[in-house]
Amino acid sequence: MTNAGAMNNPVQIINLPIEFEYNGQMYSICPSLIVYKDELTLVDTGYPGFLERIEGEILQQGYHPDQLTQIMITHYDDDHIGSLHDFKEKHPAVRIIASEWESKAIAGEVKSERLLQAEQLLVEMDEQQAENGREFIEELKRLRPASVDFLVQDGDRLMDGHCEVLATPGHTTGHISLYFPELKSVITGDAAVVEEGELAIANPQYCMNLVQAEQSLCLLKSLDANTYYIYHSGVYLR
């Protein structure tokens, strides 16, 4: 689905599907690449060890990872910040952007909400569940921090006003999404997922605040948008 505004817009959003196998099953994540002028902004960095996979997708799209100028993190979770430290280490000039709330955990200044939640849930699990729970906790503890260079909040405009930051709390407290009015497009992070052909709340059982998650989903649905770039569902057209 295209429109004249999108065709003439200096901003382009590219879906970067990454398929991988875990415990014998296939999974996928979909970071987004924003092209503006001659600069690239990567939205979320996948699991630990995914740097080369993401860079490979960037190359497949006809761009070079050395063109990266910014990395925007929608929220703190292992599948979103897992390779952030690696990207910063390889591309030290890249500017890291996140909301103020998420930035403290990303930088390792505070224990993340997800780790606190995992530790709390552990005491309620049976032994089989607890084994997986302990493994997840150790994975979270192994995540390497990275300092955030620029803080954003709801309503901020980036890329000369073409991109609007939306506070979409619920999945985590400081979760953000990105709205591109002229493109009629949204990068949702984990504020949405596609289920049975409709936008839905992603993993409601792990939302930090389910009421906020529902409100954030309603906000995303209310936008004048026809294309949603969804981290665990790919590109959704409505």
Automatic annotation (TrEMBL):
<keyword id="KW-0378">Hydrolase</keyword>
<dbReference type="InterPro" id="IPR001279">
    <property type="entry name" value="Metallo-B-lactamas"/>
</dbReference>
<dbReference type="InterPro" id="IPR036866">
    <property type="entry name" value="RibonucZ/Hydroxyglut_hydro"/>
</dbReference>
<dbReference type="GO" id="GO:0016787">
    <property type="term" value="F:hydrolase activity"/>
</dbReference>
<comment type="function">
    <text>Counteracts the endogenous Pycsar antiviral defense system. Phosphodiesterase that enables metal-dependent hydrolysis of host cyclic nucleotide Pycsar defense signals such as cCMP and cUMP.</text>
</comment>
<feature type="domain" description="Metallo-beta-lactamase">
    <location>
        <begin position="29"/>
        <end position="232"/>
    </location>
</feature>
<protein>
    <submittedName>
        <fullName>Metal-dependent hydrolase</fullName>
    </submittedName>
</protein>
<dbReference type="Pfam" id="PF00753">
    <property type="entry name" value="Lactamase_B"/>
</dbReference>
<dbReference type="InterPro" id="IPR050855">
    <property type="entry name" value="NDM-1-like"/>
</dbReference>
